[in-house]
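Milestone 3.1: sequence recovery, worked example.
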């Protein structure tokens, strides 16, 4: 597999992420695209309800321990859809790229954290499992999303260091909280669908508490963004934060809905507002 496969796979399996990556400088596009596709492939395995839980855990453990697809995988690719099979069949090539990539240290750290989070998810939610408590929720969100914020920051420091207006050591906790906040937004938005699949991430009686926690973590994301210089990296990094508050507002106004949505018009307006970050500092930007 050559690097040109990454844009093709992103177009086929991650249109939104592909658009976000195109906003970034070229040195950041490939490693972040590769990291995303690895996580998407392992998530495809983790989420396949047609495969026994223990088989999925075994497959994820094999990836985590050896970063290779076992010669005799614990399940047949025939159980997956054609789109899913394409992604899983690309996994050996993606792993080969990972082994030779200049950013393999950062990407391996990221993927191993995500794999641990996916295995935690599969082990934790048995047929009679209670919702996650606060400690478990934070641990899970950190593994699958806080890790993304940390990797994103380390890669910016490596490839575009002038973008950062604060030391990496100061930004990593903010990046972790930002990622956790975005993950919690997704959990609150999709909680009915998750419950249907047997995953009780949050107790319904505590929605207001979790909304407050999401806002707390997203506030850290706002501080993180204030430490990025204006430009394409700031625009790409800030877009998820600008989409999150309307979603949280929809959850808060109608907590009984199975899935809170924001309208396409709202999304377009947010995208247009984000264009300004190419030229102007974000609120509280240290250069302003």
């Amino acid at each position: 597999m050559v690097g040109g496969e990454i844009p093709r796979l992103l177009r086929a399996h991650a249109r939104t992420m592909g658009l976000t990556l195109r906003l970034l400088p070229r040195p950041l596009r490939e490693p972040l695209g590769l990291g995303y596709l690895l996580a998407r492939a392992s998530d495809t395995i983790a989420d396949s309800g047609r495969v026994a839980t223990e088989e999925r855990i075994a497959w994820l453990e094999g990836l985590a321990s050896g970063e290779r697809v076992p010669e005799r995988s614990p399940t047949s690719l025939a159980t997956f859809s054609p789109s899913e099979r394409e992604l899983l069949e690309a996994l050996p090539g993606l792993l080969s790229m990972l082994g030779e990539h200049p950013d393999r240290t950062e990407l391996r750290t990221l993927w191993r954290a995500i794999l641990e989070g996916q295995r935690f998810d599969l082990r934790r939610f048995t047929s009679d499992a209670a919702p996650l408590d606060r400690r478990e929720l934070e641990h899970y969100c950190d593994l699958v999303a806080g890790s993304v914020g940390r990797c994103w920051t380390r890669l910016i420091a490596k490839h575009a260091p002038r973008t950062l207006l604060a030391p990496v050591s100061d930004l990593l906790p903010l990046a972790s909280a930002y990622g956790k906040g975005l993950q919690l937004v997704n959990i609150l938005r999709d909680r009915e669908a998750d419950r249907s699949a047997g995953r009780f991430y949050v107790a319904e009686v505590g929605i207001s508490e979790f909304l407050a926690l999401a806002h707390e973590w997203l506030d850290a994301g706002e501080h993180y963004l204030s430490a990025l210089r204006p430009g394409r990296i700031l625009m790409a990094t800030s877009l998820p934060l600008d989409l999150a508050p309307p979603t949280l507002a929809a959850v808060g106004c109608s907590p009984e809905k199975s899935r809170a949505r924001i309208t396409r018009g709202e999304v377009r307006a947010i995208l247009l507002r984000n264009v300004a970050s190419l030229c102007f500092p974000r609120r509280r930007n240290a250069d302003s």
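The chain has a mean pLDDT of 85. Residues 134-159 form the longest helix (26 residues).
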